[in-house]
Amino acid sequence: MLVNLFHGFCMALADSVPGVSGGTIAFILGFYDRFLNALHDLFGRNREARLPALRYLVKLGAGWIIGMALAATALAQVFDSGVYALSSAFLGLTAASLPFILKEERETLRGHAPSLPFALLGMALVIGLVALRGANMGGALNLSSLHAWQYLYLFQTGMLAIMAMVLPGISGSTLLLVFGAYMPVITALHELMRFNFAVLPGLIVFGCGVLCGIALSIHFIRKALQQFRPQMVWFITGLMLGSLYAIVMGPATLAEPHPPLSLSTFSIPGFLAGIAVLGGLELARHMLERRQDTQQEHIYSDF
Fold first, then answer.
1. 102 within 8 A of 237, measured Cβ to Cβ
2. CA 97 to chain centre
3. Whole-Å CA distances, 290 to 10, 56, 83, 284, 287
4. I want to staple 122 with a disulfide (CB 3.0 to 4.6 A). Which of 32, 106, 229, 235 is the partner?
5. Of 157, 30, 43, 24, the residue nearest 97 (C-alpha)
6. What's 16's DSSP letter?
7. What is the structure's pLDDT at 79?
8. Looking at residues 24-47, what average pLDDT do you find?
């Protein structure tokens, strides 16, 4: 129970910031396949597998809700004033996660260098989305006063973002950043926790897009990772590399646009803090696994 709550909490922290997806954290912490299979069973036709999957996802979801509530509160308060320090931290978190992914999948990638162009495809996809951002959005979103076409836009954004969150690589928050919906959604979550229900319709539409994205994408992602894992891992690597560019351009997507991150605004302490966060998550994983192993040894010794 405690391990699943921790896993959900870590996924929420990743999902709340541009750069690393919750799927990437699940990949690094070693429970991605279980998470993906549980989602598949929940939406699948096997009724016997549905209940165990639901129990697991409820535990994971409880940790996710706690983590997202804390993250939304903190980010809504500091993003505008500390956008460059936070962007530097996101860069550190993303850059540090790449070696973890490559180490975890080294056996999968061995002998599959011809699949490297899939990494270039992933990079091109993210950079292309960033370049097209200006054409996709005419003004900042405000979830407390949306026009009809903005509800549709928000639904589509939620659907695409959750696909990215489930797939290791590009963060769903990075896509929200690219489409100009990141800070509006974070701010709306913060306002909802302050009982401002004017943002609720927009969040409901966004949530419906999220559920639709899960139902449409989970079978495809699971099959792709089973049948074309080397190509998918290279593609994921490319998505993460492209995310670095999206984070650099992130300040320009705020309601009051800032210049992109540059050498003069780059924060070395922020970058190192991002690396430290990932290192802390990995250390916590080892501690929890060691504790779980010790508990199991005690159980077996009692018999």
1. yes
2. 12
3. 18, 21, 37, 10, 5
4. 235
5. 24
6. T
7. 65
8. 78
